Amino acid sequence: MLALQILIDGFAISALYALGATGFTLIFGVSGVLNLSHGAIMVLAAVAAWAAASVLHLGSYSGALLGVAVAVVASFATYFAVVQPIQKSRRIATEEKEIFILTSTLLWGIMIQELIAYFFTNNAKTVLPIVEGVVNIFGERTTKNEIFTAVVCCVSIGLLWLLVNRTRTGKAVLAASMNPRGVTLLGLELGSIYLVVWGIYGILAGIAGVLLGMFLGVSSYSVGPLTASAFSIVVLGGLGSVSGSLIAAFVVGYLETITAYLISPAYRTIPALLLLVAVMYVRPQGLLGRR
Amino acid sequence: MASFFKSRLFFISIAIVIVAATLPLYMSGYVLGLLTVAFYFGVFAMSWDLLFGFAGEVNFGPTFLIGVGAYTAGILNAQTGWSVYPCIVLGALAAVIAGLVLALPALRVRGPYFGLTTLVAVLILQNFIVVFADLTGGEIGLTIPDVITINAGANYWIALGFMTISALILYGLAQSPIGLVLQASGQDPVQAGALGFNIVKHKLAAFIVSAFFSGLSGALLVFYMGTASVGTVVDIAVGVNVIVAAVLGGRRTVLGAALGAIFLIVAGEFLRPTGELATFIVSAVALLVVLFFPGGFLGAALSHEGRS
Fold first, then answer.
1. Least confident of B14-18, B115-119, B120-124, B171-175
2. A44, A74, A207, A290: which has the highest count of C-beta atoms within 10 A?
3. Distance from B97 to chain A by nearest Cα, in Å?
């Protein structure tokens, strides 16, 4: 029953990718920032959860919460220490701000990565799963942790959808992604909307990081690939389009799983990368992007 | 360009090159080896600056061009046994072809979209190197039978000469009318096109020149080190260093990029006693420079000179 196995594993991976990429695309949609320290923040969350269990001897629930909290702090630190100074700088020309934010968030990510490596070594770390054990789904042995991962991802994305579409704050965020100037004309402070978005981003990246740590394990080497995969999913789906990233996450996740199972794990990422290049040629704005 | 030969920058550069050329007479082989690598790295950063600083193309994949040049030269030498120089030339040509491949999306997509395409190009190259391990040596790296020379002084002079000539050509190109058209098309392609300049032709030229020097430098580097590996010429971390070097030294200055590259490599060596924190400190310094002196080293120096 290879097909069923691919279906289950692919779903868990895809849901994880989707959660990781949602926050990334939300920030781009609202403030035009591509945060290349994304992978570092995810790994930081996972390592914090790991350290909570193995160094501070906390339970797995409080460990996971600590991981998410650390990610939120890191997210605000990224905003205040790196992104905001550039956005406010008068010495950097407006059309160059994008590349400055890319370069500096990249450097910031490397700094986080190196600090993790310094204090907690480069070794791979696996966060103790919150739920343990195995269940049978139509004869396929599946760890409960895998199901837990998929469920938490879907619930988080669902909550995000409710937040954005059903609450006042969420609607302000949505409006800011459509037309920032219009939002300021309505008397809403763009600065506080940015704060909300970076907060949401921190929570999403934190949850995704901790789940990744439980599901596959992380090391400081996963920083680059994680950023690259979030970046490619978001561009594939169309920059700034949350539903586009969700679709793209499932396309990439299943493509990788199918390749790994049917051809060889060594070729895992290649088809997704080629697909990405092909989409760039045919439809440069991504699947659901608007220009 | 003519004014450059009278400028203070020109005389300072000449003085630095002359002083640098005498180093092998009294410096240890260790210092020379370090600077040799730094000089090749400087050419990477200068080529990147031509593409980004002038043509405005956000190229996250300088190592795609470098890696293709380096690996082509290395594999040719290891497989066919041809002597070093034809392999280096063919490596540079292969990099030019890679540059054309990279230029195709650049003519269609812009900004972050192009940036991602270049990033993906590096990842694909890296994957192929690992997959075709029999040919490329995979993750362990490719051992190259021949080297240019084993004399540290000669290697140093070759690298210094190569960097000086590349700097002259790249700087000259950047200051020439072609460079101005590139800069215009990077800032506002529509308007530059409306003024009657053929943007596509100029951008292709920029990609070809950038790819040629990246590939040549990559090929020379592997024949200096006697080995080519993903970690030294392809990995995204190497590309990040190239970008950091160029931004640190000052974008749109070409010469500043070389300065930034030498600073990065030498600083990395000085910080070696701090162990794993070395990369952290270099990144932190680079971040501070980007945040507080967005013009980079040379940008800050030149604007100071302009004011006084």
1. B115-119
2. A44
3. 17
Among the listed ranges A203-217, B108-122, B204-218, which one has the minimum average pLDDT value? Answer: B108-122
A231 touches chain B (CB under 8 A): yes
- Say which amino acid occupies A124: A
- Buried/exposed code over A18-27 (b: 16+ C-beta within 10 A; e: otherwise): bbbbbbbbbb
Q: How far apart are CA A129 and CA A190, in angstroms?
A: 39
pLDDT attached to residue B307: 46
Residue B228 is inside which H or E element, if any?
Answer: strand B227-228
- Comparing alpha-carbon positions, the chain A residue that sits nearest to B280 is A111
CB B45 within 8 A of CB B260: yes
User: What is the per-residue pLDDT across B44-56, written as a single tens digit (0 to 9) for each?
Assistant: 999 999 888 777 7
Partner-chain contact B240 A106, CB within 8 Å: yes
In contact, A100 and B294? CB cutoff 8 Å? yes
Question: Is B285's Cβ below 8 Å from some Cβ in A?
Answer: no
Query: With an 8 Å Cβ cutoff, is B294 touching chain A?
Result: yes
Q: What angle do CA B255, B260, B265 make, to 5 degrees?
A: 130
Q: Which domains does chain A have, with CATH numbers?
A: 2-282 (1.10.3470)
Please give the backbone phi and psi of residue B226, each rounded to the nearest 5 degrees, phi first.
75, 10
Beta-strand relationship, A134-137 and A140-143? antiparallel
Q: Does B109 contact chain A (CB < 8 Å)?
A: yes
> d(Cα A81, Cα A104) in Å, to the nearest integer?
10
Q: pTM of the prediction?
A: 0.85
Q: What is the pLDDT of residues A70-94, one digit of tens each?
A: 999 999 999 999 999 988 888 777 7
Distance from CA of A67 to the nearest CA of B (A): 22
Euclidean distance between the first and the last CA atom of chain B, given in angstroms as a whole number: 22
The complex's ipTM works out to 0.82
Contact B137, B229 (CB under 8 A): yes
Selected residues 205-264 of chain B with any CB under 8 Å from a CB in chain A: 236-237, 240, 243-244, 247
Fold observed for domain B31-307: ABC transporter involved in vitamin B12 uptake, BtuC (1.10.3470)
- The overall average pLDDT reported for chain B is 86
CB contact under 8 A, B286 and A228: no
Geometric angle at alpha carbon B70, from A229 and B107, rounded to 5°: 55
